[in-house]
Amino acid sequence: VQLQASGGALVRAGGSLRLSCAFSGSDFRSYKMGWYRQTPGKQRELVATIGSGGTTYYADSVKGRFTISRDNAENTVYLQMNSLKPEDTAVYYCYAEYALSAEYAYWGQGTQVTVSS
Predict the structure, then answer these.
(1) Less packed terminus of the chain by CB within 10 Å, N or C?
(2) Which residues neighbour 92 within 8 Å (Cβ) at sequence distance 6 or greater?
């Protein structure tokens, strides 16, 4: 499985960004997808996930501002980020986990999101 994340940028507080993650190498519909983020010196934290059936989960810090979605025809997962805050600044990582076994999990390269105040 290969994951290619894109869409990170520098944006002002209150602005919006959409991250994309292109999936290849296996059956996309069999994977739960997610986004994590990490800042220097801190552990990687979960932002949002979307199951193979479309069930979503959000960290409390992003609920109501971020939306995760998936396009099974395009093998892509998105993270729409609205009302961005400086504390959202981080490297965002795409994640894929096989629905039938968490043993098969994959990470994409990170994409930098910087929110200026």
Answers:
(1) C
(2) 5, 8, 19, 35, 36, 37, 47, 79, 110, 111, 112, 113
What is the overall mean pLDDT for the chain?
A: 97
Query: CA Rg, the chain, in Å?
Result: 13
Give the total residue count for the chain: 117
Query: How far lies 62's CA from each of 28, 49, 84, 102, in Å?
Result: 25, 12, 9, 24
CB atoms within 10 A of CB 51: 15
Distance CA 24, CA 74 (A): 10
Burial of 37 (0-12, 13-18, 19+ CB in 10 A): buried
Contact (CB, 8 A) for 3 and 23: yes
User: Is the distance from CB of 33 to CB of 20 less than 8 angstroms?
Assistant: no
Token pair for residue 11? 């944006």
Section 70-76 average pLDDT: 97
